[in-house]
Amino acid sequence: MHSGLFPFVVSKIESVESCEQKDQIFSSLRVTIYDSTQWRLSEPFTKMKKIFILTLFLINSMTANSQETQFKSGVYHWNDLDVKAGNMREGRRFFEGSSHHFDYLEIHATTQQAGAKPAPPHTQKDIEEIIIVKEGKMKMTMDGESRVLEAGSVILIPPLVEQSLENVGEGPLTYYVFMFRAKNGMDLERGSQSGGKLFASVNDLTTETTKKGERVGYFDRPTVMCRKLEMHVTQLNNAGPSHNPHQHEDSEIILVLKGEVGVKIDGVSHAGQEGDIFFASSGALHGVSNLKDMPCRYFAIRWQ
Predict the structure, then answer these.
(1) How many domains does the chain have?
(2) In the structure, what pLDDT confidence band is assigned to residue 32 with cuts at 50, 70 and 90?
């Protein structure tokens, strides 16, 4: 369709209030298709043409609304996700939309069966990514550098870095992917000065004993898309809170690795188990607790 016609039709429709006035607009507009891509004025609209234009208008509205979906504070359960299977893979999408700091944020999980053919190497033009290995053994390659990573390992992939991954284990490989683009734009120099791409192998990290369990720090630094991005794992050995409810500018994700975790966000209590994701938006009052008198373990991811 000619690029100028549809916005013109929409603006005309939105500028009036009554159905009668809208019908008058349809009756006065004259259009037909020629050369498969051009539009010109000709015959009055038939009823079918009215339906066609209204359908396009509704599709346009729904597309705009889906692009503006806000990542809401709460819990997103693994077992509630739709599963798309094919080509020795399964995919689960938690969310796609935007958040306080990101104009694009997408979170999904992929499972590759042993022997699955790896996708060709690719780059993201203006998207930064975090990959978390949930189970199995992954060979990750970034700009020609490869590492074999096990469950609990994390990869940070800046924009424009060539990447590919492969299941090199004997069983399934499952991993989470977080894709994001900052509202304030990307800063390639900031990301480079902070270290650029990152392989964080779980075998290379230090476990710190705390009063309530354990803590494993992954990284805390600026990135291409974030003024600050911090990741760590917390383990709580007994029932009770990790800390008092608090607020901060950062948005935060809690990804449950094992056990049963409770997160209270702005007065609403949520419960989750392995695979579930909690989200607390910037400024939300929140606190994390172990719901059982046995160890729970979770990733905490904070950014601004």
Answers:
(1) 2
(2) very low
